[in-house]
Amino acid sequence: MTTRIYVPRDAAALSVGADDVATRIAAEAAARGDDIAIVRNGSRGMCWLEPLVEVETAEGRVAYGPVSVDDVARLFDAGILEGGADTLYLGPTEAIPYFARQQRLTFARCGVVDPLSIEDYRAHGGYEGLQRALSMAREEIVAEVTDSGLRGRGGAGFPTGIKWQTVLDAPAEPKYIVCNADEGDSGTFADRMLMEGDPFTLIEGMTMAGVAVGATVGYIYLRSEYPHAHRTLREAITTAREHGYLGPSVAGSAHPFDIEVRLGAGAYICGEETALLESLEGRRGLIRPRPPLPAVSGLFGQPTVVNNVLSLATVPVILERGAEAYREFGMGRSRGTQPVQLAGNVKRGGLIELAFGVTLRELIENYGGGTASGRPVRAVQVGGPLGAYFPDSLLDTPLDYEAIAAADGLLGHGGVVVFDDTVDLASQARFAMAFCAFESCGKCTPCRIGATRGVEVIDRIVAGEERTANLELLDDLNDLMTKASLCALGGLTPIPVRSALQHFPEDFSRPAPVATTG
Amino acid sequence: MKLDAYRTWDDERARRLIEAVAHLPGALLPVLHSLQDEFGYIDDAAIPLITDALNVSRAEVVGVIHFYHDFRTAPPGRHTLRVCRAESCQSMGSQALAAHIEERLGTPMESTTADGEFTLENVYCLGNCALSPAVMLDGRLYGRVTPERVDALLAPALTATGGAA
Ligand SMILES: Cc1cc2nc3c(=O)[nH]c(=O)nc-3n(C[C@H](O)[C@H](O)[C@H](O)COP(=O)(O)O)c2cc1C
Ligand code: SF4
Ligand code: FES
Questions:
Q1: How many CA atoms lie within 13 A of A424 on its CB side?
Q2: Residue where a domain stops, chosen among B26, B47, B67
Q3: Helix (H) or strand (E) holding B30
Q4: For B144, which of A16, A300, A346 is closest by C-beta distance?
Q5: ipTM for this model
Q6: What is the pTM of this model?
Q7: Is A183 touching B (CB cutoff 8 A)?
Q8: Are A231 and A311 contained in the same domain?
Q9: Total structural domains within chain B
Q10: B51 is a domain residue
């Protein structure tokens, strides 16, 4: 009998040797005459256990990890094909506490299925949501998304259904669906993991958006830093086309819809939706003034849905299980689940999908197991480079759009980056300003000039030059950037800077090493 | 991307590459990517070819090339090593890692070694933040990178050329 062995093809797993492990497993099995089939699945999100090798046994899938090439022969000696005992044995994969305590909706199939097998996708509920959508009126599909309470996962948290309704109501044709796969926030990788581990979910979600608002063309704007995701998406799109899920007649219906992947070119600002649209049209990524909203006049001046990867990839499960089932998760106005990305100086980093409301402390202690260095946690940055640095006293804040905002931060794309007590928050504040200056689109002065001034002022504060006057100057600069910037890059850069000043003032009163953006 | 993946600039080949994607709506970025994938950079000679094919001005093309961090206007080294400098990797020692690489290769970040072997680039997040610090060598991603691991990655190229100690 053939034994199935899973070795992830996710970029994080590859980054610690998954390809070599897969090759060695194949060679070892061949040498021993064992009959195996290797499936290259996505990641389960337990990144610290990568490469995480799973074996399908009579008792279900069991896991071993982290497996290195040198472990393979020993694992075969230990009877890995029957789930034999070894120091790397982790038991049934889905019983590993890190995984078992999660609520996987958006990522339900990620790591489970072969990402490029449409048969596998369908066997795990794939395209059931689309079938249901195709039997509904457009307004009903949009209403279902609105009722689910789904809010955009790209950062701003805008209700997805309301955006779709605006595009549905816009009279102009053609209309477009644009998937924002720019994932520029440091500390985040959920979009990548989903695109590499379950790309058909994104394709299905975009198709539903197209059917719902009457769009026939979709673009995925993917950051160029993700070559693995690029290959996976292109293959999956070709497969979906071959199976009639994309093309002139989606799943045999009267709806045409197709998708093209476009690569970004290393500009953080192109994650902002209007800069992204400029880039897709072949121009510099300069922010467009609004109004008009992209929903009314977006790509090539046409009504356009711009949604994050996770927003679109969550629609299939909503349509499959119903809006009510999705709404049941979460707290307050944050409904459903949030894929949290736990990263930085943490023992057990990875993707944790949970109903909104888990606290930072629970994440870092119960899931993360503390810092990787073994030193105390000093600061936690939530929400990417424009997010706040929180001190220990704020770690009981729950992850929920409103609660994080009340603590003067933002949830962003759900990245949580842990720093130990060797961090210098003046350096981090300086980096925030330097990053803003480096990535500024240049359209407005508060950001273009202000961020460069910000770096200089922080340097003077740290060097002890007229500290009081320069702290006041920095405060004024933060005010100006917050109030007068045209977009959130300049407008939110003061958040990490102010949080560092407020919670870690001692770091600004001694000389410190300096971060560079090069 | 693989070793010696780039061809030397060739007008005729460039023209064909441009034509292959020129029909796309908003074709400029696909055109530039296609040229850079082939030649490693965008040669000045590409600009008139692009303005002709896409019916855009020279200023527009030059403006776009300069706006995006990815596009180069001079050939890179035979290998490109991108080092993540964003927050998650900072928390795991990417500063020290970058300093180690600079010393090892004898050239600062954002430059190419004198022998044309390595180009060093800063990058802001490679999406491998749970396994920080991360680097990308010729399009291949590496995580949990220590100075020792980076030395091992660079070793084949360094011994092949008898390059920097
Ligand atoms: C500077 C900046 C960078 C952004 N980067 C991203 C990004 O990488 N991915 C993303 O989905 N949204 C990003 N956004 C948010 C988008 O502008 C937009 O709100 C989002 O794509 C809408 O999709 P959603 O409603 O599904 O979240 C960024 C916004 C700003 C201001
Ligand atoms: S705030 Fe910065 S990035 Fe945004 S429009 Fe102004 S200059 Fe451009
Ligand atoms: S911050 Fe370095 S990989 Fe994300």
A1: 17
A2: B67
A3: helix B28-39
A4: A16
A5: 0.95
A6: 0.96
A7: yes
A8: yes
A9: 2
A10: yes
